[in-house]
Write a structure and sequence with these properties.
With about 120 residues, the chain is mostly helical. The chain has a domain of about 70 residues. Helix content is about 65%, strand content about 0%. It has five helices and no strands. It is rod-shaped. It starts with a helix and ends in a 19-residue tail after the last helix. The mean pLDDT is about 80.
């Protein structure tokens, strides 16, 4: 209310003297306390006091996020390995799969077959 009255009435101080051609604002009650220099200084000090704890919380969050991402990557790798092992188990469950693994690992032949061993080559695939 006072602001409107100040704008209607001619002020004894010219706009150039007030600075930036702004109307004079007078606060009363809690606004006067909230916008005072001591209150702003207390807010700045409180903010400066909270910065280390905020930075510590951020660093812990960042470390936890990195660990979570590593665990997710490891879980994905384990799932693909599990699928591969289940496929191998399914293959070894058949007679043809067993025979293939025995021939690959032990160089044996069925009766009537011959085994050729090449010297100088690796037997592992």
């Amino acid at each position: 209310m006072r602001r409107v009255q100040d704008m209607r009435r001619k002020s004894p101080v010219s706009p150039a003297q007030r600075g930036l051609w702004s109307p004079r604002v007078v606060y009363h009650g809690w606004r006067r306390v909230a916008y005072s220099w001591p209150a702003l200084a207390v807010l700045v000090l409180a903010f400066l006091f909270l910065i280390p704890s905020l930075w510590g919380a951020y660093s812990r969050f960042s470390a936890a996020r990195a660990i979570r991402n590593e665990a997710a990557a490891k879980l994905e790798a384990n799932k693909t390995r599990q699928a591969s092992l289940e496929n191998q188990i399914k293959t070894l469950g058949t007679d043809a799969g067993k025979e293939e693994q025995i021939r690959r690992n032990y160089q044996v032949a069925m009766p009537g077959e011959g085994v050729i061993v090449l010297v100088g080559t690796s037997s592992a695939r």
